[in-house]
Amino acid sequence: MICLKNGFVLENDELIKKDIYIKGNKIVDFNSNDKIEVYDCEGCLVMPGACDIHVHLREPGFTNKETIKTGTLSAAKGGITTIFSMPNIIPYPDNLLGLKVEEDIIKRDAVVHVFPYACTTKEEKGKELADLEILAKHVKAFSDDGVGIQDLDLLEKACKIAKDNNIVVASHAEDAVLKYAPAGEYVAVKREIEIAKKTGVKYHFCHMSTKESFNYIKEAQKSGYDNITCEVAPHHLFLNETMINNNPNYKMNPPLRSEEDRLATLEALLDGTATIIASDHAPHTKEEKQRPYELAPNGIIGLETMLPLVYTNLIKTKKATVKQFIDWVVNNPRKLMGLSAVMIAPGYPADIAVMDITKLHCYTEEEILSKGVNSPYIGMELTGFMRYTFVDGKLVYKEE
Length: 400
Ligand code: DOR
Ligand code: ZN
Ligand code: ZN
Known about the structure:
The protein is an alpha/beta fold. It folds into two domains: about 1-45 and about 345-400, Urease, subunit C, domain 1; about 45-335, Metal-dependent hydrolases (TIM Barrel), CATH 3.20.20.140. It contains eleven helices and 18 strands. It has a five-stranded parallel β-sheet. The radius of gyration is 20 Å and the shape is globular. One zinc ion binds near residues 172 and 207.
């Protein structure tokens, strides 16, 4: 039996100092007959492992950027015990055979739970639907993340199939002509909301970043469409366009926006329009990110810093509560994807993040477990890095 000793656990909206016991893959009650292995959790929050529904693991296809092994080790370091992996990989999981390739590597190499997305359209080309009826029996969500779907009839067909099979559609809302401009996002959001309303599918907007997008989503939710949800990424909450300075580690899609949009993103999270924080972990090679800004690919890594960033900027500062924090990174993403509810209590799975909420730590390139080191947060001092992470009762990360 494992004992997580002297940590804080959230119970009825209060932090309570409590020892937690693990046996096998479950949280259990104390049993005096068992031999005990103690982990010191003094100064830590003991919380259910986070669920990040927006991660690019790159394998199969782009193992020079990341692998399922390195990406899931990076997640474990970040206190994330369940991830949803985006389908812009090769072979594309747009048919059962392609999906199977990814699933086999997950079985072999993943150290946290991984749920693959299937593509919405074949090779994410937006021309014909992926094998959705078949894939619906094997995944929880469809997405063409990386590109916006322009053919609205095709998108509506996908939504109907998803609705019939209780599958989430996760949208990278982007107009092909307006591209990275703020309107490139919100024009797409506006038209896709109509499809979400019409079909009633669980329609989830990824990485929302503009004031107008949040206004459209909020308006739809207010008129009763609770099938429409959205997520925000840490970089749109805590960084803005004035910080880019042609540095490719500040280049991603959607791009960093104005301070006004950043504040709207924060407000959308605090007022409940956005219910989920997801990393959009997008590793690239050093060579790719050393290119001049215009030539460097979009994306930054984010698994290791998502929880510390949110803890430091919103919880430590008392802009939000620990309860809200756990809702954003654990409960709401799990609920959207139809995963079981989790708690730090006997009988629940021992997927646990032990987060140090006392120590200030400077994030360094050397400590990164992802293959990608494309992080704008290197050199930043944050609170809330993990001391330990457990998956199914097994230690998958331990602070050095
Ligand atoms: O920044 C991004 N990176 N945005 C995307 O839409 C795709 C992603 C990637 O795959 O690198
Ligand atoms: Zn995207
Ligand atoms: Zn993405």
